[in-house]
Specification:
This protein is mostly beta strands and 158 residues long. Helix content is 8%, strand content 41%. The chain has a single domain, classed as Acid Proteases (Cathepsin D, subunit A, domain 1). It has a 6-stranded mixed β-barrel. The longest helix has 7 residues, at 42-48.
Length: 158
Amino acid sequence: MDHEHLVAELALPLQMIEVTLDGTITVMGIMDTGCQVIIICSNIWEKLGTPMKHEQVMFMELANGQANATMGTSPSICFSVGEVSLYCLVQVVRNSPFKCLLSLPFTLLESTKCQEFLDGSAHLLFTDPNTGASITVLTHAKKSSKCCHPPCSHEEDF
């Protein structure tokens, strides 16, 4: 007797959520719990106007084996999703195909509970570690790179 089996997709789009930084700038943050650091693009950092510690540079190894240095660390940026707010240390990068990468430190601080679906989408339950407030958000698929914003870049060196 033959049984049909569900088969994993070859590839699924990255998933994103809307997040407000320091109560002033709203961006779509890519969810990536496989990443060890929270990252924002230098253009976003400049708009926020937060200080940066240039002596806290990190060398990040990419999946293809290349390594790139960050510009430094911004010590305390507030990330808000609805009523849930987190204060996070953030690495700032010059060039990236995203504005914000929400990684393992972000999801661990919020005690995230995740329900994933076959299409790659998810329901994320976030809990504020300081107030106990919680919110469930839906993820959105990142569009193909052909229709996304231009890569983050900065003309000057710091």
